[in-house]
Amino acid sequence: MSDRHANYIPKHIRREETIMEMPSPEYNEDSEHDFKSFDDEVPLQNSRFSFVSGEDEHELPNRTLVKRNGAATVNVLEDRYAQGTMELIKALQDNEPEEPFWEDLRRLDLQQKDLPTLNRLDELCYRIEALDVSNNHIAQLAGAPTTLRRLNISNNCLNKLKVDDNEVDSLDGVLELDGLLKLSAKGNKIKRVDFQGAYLERLTELDLSDNEIHSVRSLDTLKSLETLNLDENELSTFSFGRVSKVKQLGLNRNRLEKLDVSSFPRLETLAADSNNLSSLSGIAKLKHLRVLSARDQHPASGIFDTTSFLANADISELYLSSNTIPTLSFPEDNAGNTTPLLNLQRLELASCGLRTLPDKFGAVAPNIRSLNLNFNALKELRPLLNSKKLARLDLAGNRLSRLRRNVLVLAKVPSLRAVDLRNNAFNVGFYPPPSADRRVSRAGLCISIDDDNVSLVSGEHSLLEQEAEQQRQPQHLVLPSADDDRDRAYLARLDADTALRRRVYEMLVAGACGGVRALDGLALRRDEAMRRDEVWERLVGLGVVVRKKSRP
């Protein structure tokens, strides 16, 4: 026994007395266990008894010591037991008076013990597999042993329950917990859910993601539900009566072929990426809808009806990347007039096969602040002319070839602060290939766009801001911010012709777009680009750069 535990034995035990030791039975970690009900009598296992005189007390095992003193039994606990709550220890003493080794318990019945918590139970009884703590005052499961396979916690005060990443295949055991506010059972084996007759009237958050659910019934009985996450399941249909309070709905990575969300009148955020949807029904009636994401759909017909996803004029963020949209069409009213999208501020249409934008794009959506058109086949930017509030524009990997013409278009968007034109015909070879490590660089760049302003921060203090901005969109839909040091080293090795073309490119953007502060993932080096050297004088002579007249 360690010196720490030897020194801990109180003085009133260190006398020439007889102390009883009950060693634990053999324990096989790989053995199978037959679970009986809590009412079944569990036979006592054979125990061996040995008697140790007081002079050999340092050989006592590192366990609970039991001293007989007349009719009284005094439990002397190690310091790790003393850290547990007094209520739990008292309940264990009352319930298991003949068991000196609590860590060997496999089944434990602590019902009606006035317990407020299970804190430290995982240290005192770390092999428990069947636990009954019904009819107590427990408000959370912190301290429940990880070895549990069966748990009865009915008639308690639970308001949060988290049973993630287990082998749970049914919610039947929690449907009567009427005090629950939050329930998370993601990463389990649940196949169907039926809330008919459930008492979860106070439940506000429900996370059943990453299961095998193919059927959800009676969701409308959850009267207080505000957040529902059913990502990564097997749902092919999703239809209910009126679910009045749900604001956040996650249906990513299911098998949905049809979706009608008109039964969610308070819906604010809908995420339905990676399904089989060709259209979306019911969103025109959702007056509170602000964020809609329907990336990467695989409809059986092969046709993606863009107008059905644009049918709500109140949406402020729309993410439709990785869908087949060769031509973007806006919805029209009964008179044939295009419906303006005045609230739309973020639009993501990356990797959609887009060849052209509608001529009235800027007029229909004049308040867009962030537009991602990466990895398409666009050749012309004129439809962006009326985008008066556009601050961030991603156009990497398109078919843009006429540099001066496209820069003139960008010059007429005075609100523009960041533009990414990498991997287009006019800047091939200008930059080193993106690093295989997509983590944000300490010399990287962050463009932050909120409702009121646009800010650009560089250096290591912006790491968290960069990560947050890049996590808003999947990595395969945006190019990472470039590393300034790595770019300068690459530029120093460029051949003279390519270096000159890059200088011209940067001069055109810097000269025409006075508000741009970030170009192609780097802070725009305006002073370096516009320095008056031989190259600058030559370009002035060619009419590429206009010399500003000096004031008299």
From TrEMBL:
It comes from the Eukaryota. InterPro entries: CDIRP (IPR052574), Leu-rich_rpt (IPR001611), Leu-rich_rpt_4 (IPR025875), Leu-rich_rpt_typical-subtyp (IPR003591), LRR_dom_sf (IPR032675). GO terms for cellular component: outer plaque of mitotic spindle pole body. It holds the Pfam family LRR_4. GO terms for molecular function: signaling adaptor activity. GO terms for biological process: regulation of mitotic cytokinesis; septation initiation signaling. Keywords: Leucine-rich repeat, Repeat. Coiled coil: none annotated. This is Putative conserved leucine-rich repeat protein. It comes from Diplodia seriata.
